[in-house]
Amino acid sequence: MRSALAAGLIASAFSAVPIIKKGQDGYDDHTRMWNYLPELEGWVPLLQPGVRPDAAEFAVPTTITDVTDIVGHYKHRGLHPRVKSAGGHNYAGWGIEDGGVTISLREMREFAINSGDETVTIGPGYQWHEVYKLLEDDKTCPDVDGHPHQWIIPGGTCKSVGVAGYTLGGGHSSLSRTLGLGIDSLVSMDVVLADGTVAHCSEQSHPDLFWALKGSGGTSFGVVVRFVFRLSKIPRQMAHGKISFNTLWNKPKRSNLLQRYFDFAQTMPPTLNVYSKCNGVVLEFFYSSTEANHEDGMKHIDQFLQLFKWNDFPDMREAEKVGSFWDYEVLVNLDEFDELPASVYWQSALVTEMTSESVDELVEGFGFLYISSLGGAITNYADDATAYRFRSAAFTISAMKAIILKDNVQDAHSNWASFRSKLGSSYLGAYVNYVDPYMMTNFMTEYYGPNAERLSVVKATYDPTNFWRFPQSIPLP
């Protein structure tokens, strides 16, 4: 009698939460992902790329109470829901299980700036471009030394990255050398656990859970339904820009350009942030300075630009200006797309340096590259201060291959192994936000290293029945 009554109460509470099933209006909006690499047995990619996994249903909460009701409902049904936030940038598509159920957080859109204590509260339904625009439009940030400033958080670079997934994986930002990782600005998080309770975690409350959520990625411990970030200040007008080079059919040129960048980045000031993208044809470098004095900022940028003298690279194209951080994001994302038309496979390496041999091997094996400069404020924390452990890394190297046939994966593995062999002791591990779905046997070591055992202990404390699970979730001890 009691169990029947409990089931009725759960069903009654859950009935108020929108459920969207396949074929209903809005279903495709929730299946939308940046990359299609469906979860198939043995992780064999589809011969017809661009086919996404289909959830049986999406539960779409708008409040924290909705999420607790959803968890109780799915637990009563014996189901293990996946969780998908606003971005859908998990390269393996693990926010959706084919035929399973997913909690879609895109409608949880709490946003409040508290200028008094210099914090901002953000729900998991936001993408970073939305956050950046809201922060720029806010006028409560005080001037610094007579220079107008705005509030900022070191958030995602690609415009459609979601706040939740980006932050939980650590958060490499185009401002990280100045302001640290995304997780370094966290004040607290509210998390719905497997038993339906809400844990408020911070340095003072549930500090073990707070530690684990800062870099473990995904939803191994629960659903984070609220983030509170400490706000930083940056000038409303910054020196920034990009340079680009045509490197089609010219791998030696690409290697030369990248090597100059890698060498310079090891010594550049923390106020200068530079990263690089290559699509196999055009190699681009994006740069910005957080110096309030534009002349000081341009001085550092000019030192970077001097690496590529016109007589060495006469085809260099330069786009440079002084503008807001929002202007810089627009420049960065001019050619960005929200969804890829096919399945792509990313691999990543966090490294302390790049030698000429490793650069040549990288360029030989991969045309599509994304490279971030780290260091600076990121090094203010020890490797075990957060679940994210790569504080001493100088760069994140990520390489992509389009997956059309099974052989493409084998080629990617072979090329990556050759590149890894040139890195030697400079290789530290792989970045969980560039999830590698084929790295199933050693992902705990690659992502978390010495922090892996502690993460499993936290898992046993907060999710002892392994309710929250996906192919690379934190395992129980």
Outline the structure in words.
The protein has about 475 residues and is an alpha+beta fold. Helices cover about 30% and strands about 20% of the residues. It has 14 helices and 19 strands. The protein has helices spanning about 1-15, 25-30, 65-75, 130-135, 165-170, 175-180, 205-215, 250-265, 295-305, 325-330, 355-365, 405-425, 445-450, 450-460, and strands at about 20, 55-60, 80-85, 100-105, 110-115, 120, 150, 185-190, 200, 225-230, 230-235, 240-245, 270-280, 280-290, 315-325, 345-350, 370-375, 395-400, 425-430. The strands form 4 sheets. Strands 15-12-14-13-17-18-16-19 form an 8-stranded antiparallel β-sheet. Strand 5 and strand 6 (about 120) form a beta hairpin. Helix 1 crosses helix 3 (about 65-75), helix 8 (about 250-265) crosses helix 11 (about 355-365) and helix 11 packs antiparallel against helix 12 (about 405-425). The protein starts with a helix and ends in a 15-residue tail after the last helix.
Low-confidence stretches: 1-12, 38-50, 337-341
Q: What share of residues are in beta strands?
A: 15-25%
State the end-to-end CA separation. Answer: 37 Å
Strands in their spatial order, largest beta sheet: 15-12-14-13-17-18-16-19
Number of helices: 14
Mean pLDDT: 89
Structural class estimated from helices and strands: alpha+beta
Number of strands: 19
| Rg result | 22 Å
| Net shape | globular
**Which percent range fits the helix content?**
25-40%
Main sheet characteristics: 8 strands, antiparallel
